[in-house]
Specification:
This protein has three helices and five strands. The protein is α+β, with helices and mostly antiparallel strands. The protein has one domain. It has a three-stranded antiparallel beta sheet. α2 runs antiparallel to α3. The structure holds zinc ion (ZN). The site of zinc ion (ZN) has 7 residues, from β4. Keywords: Membrane, Transmembrane, Transmembrane helix.
């Protein structure tokens, strides 16, 4: 299964050059160079996508998982706590979709790409 960069329409060959970016419930794959170019254009029209497959977002996803489990497993803050728990599942779900849909099917690193 191959993934095509949303910006240049060429194939993405490994995880090293992959950036998955999310906006609401959609995820788009980019080369990291293309993402840098795309984000500059996107910023000018005020419509930015956030990268999913980087270290900070992975850390945030893990923290949100702890928050979600805390609110959903306990009675903290009552129904407000349940709502917060459900909302904190969103970044976790997006991170998992990015992994299973894009990252898992690509090799970590391919030499001699060009
Ligand atoms: Zn590209």
């Amino acid at each position: 299964m191959s993934h095509v960069c949303h910006y240049c329409k060429k194939e993405i060959r490994d995880r090293d050059e992959l950036v998955t970016a999310s906006k609401w419930l959609s995820i788009r794959p980019y080369h990291y160079r293309c993402y840098d170019l795309a984000i500059q254009e996107i910023e000018t029209i005020g419509n930015n996508e956030k990268p999913l497959n980087n270290i900070p977002n992975t850390v945030i996803s893990i923290v949100m998982l702890v928050v979600a489990v805390y609110f959903l497993a306990t009675a903290a803050l009552g129904s407000v706590g349940d709502l917060l728990g459900v909302l904190s599942l969103y970044p976790i779900i997006m991170r998992l979709i990015s992994y299973f849909r894009y990252e898992r099917s690509l090799p970590a690193f391919v030499e001699n790409k060009r």
